[in-house]
Design brief:
The protein is α/β, with parallel strands linked by helices. It has a single domain, classed as Flavodoxin domain (Rossmann fold), CATH 3.40.50. The chain has six helices and five strands. A five-stranded parallel β-sheet has the order 2-1-3-4-5, sandwiched between helices. Strand 3, helix 3 and strand 4 form a beta-alpha-beta unit. It starts with 5 loop residues before the first strand and ends in a 5-residue tail after the last helix.
Length: 187
Amino acid sequence: MRDPYLLAVITASVRADRIGPKVTRWFLRHLDRHTDATVDHIDLADLDLPGDLSGGGDAERFTRRVEQADAFVVVTPEYNHGYPGPLKTAIDTPYEQWRAKPLGFVSYGGVSGGLRAVEQLRTVFAELHVPTMRTSVLIPNVHDAFDDRGELRAPAPVEAALTELVRQLNWWARALSGARTDRPYDC
């Protein structure tokens, strides 16, 4: 395993009025206290991923970044009790490159904090042989959650979840990287 491992943090929302970059910036600012991972930030709004999955655009470059990563964190909103369509396109663009690599969630939305989107995503990633972390970072009522500096107004429960999520990711990333090296995952 390369140490530090490579953690890809994916900002899932592509809407013009999105709050996703603020949530991602907060996560990235607090991440380095809990891991020595090297971070590759992937903002889906910066990529051209064809919805028909025909390749082209940035599909090859995105697939390569997924292949190189040892672990992932998806920063996603909940829209209408689900996750954004462009995230589904991004998930479906690579295939085998996701396998046997751990993934965590930072979600946000209304009262549920994006929980329903995360629950749907767990089943999608299970089909790709991606273990998802039990602990997720959920930010409810996201439009009121941050102050003018981009920090959480009530950080304690959310930062505790972040600490636990990253602790789990650190273990799984190292364990699965060693396992993939010792015995390639071909299931």
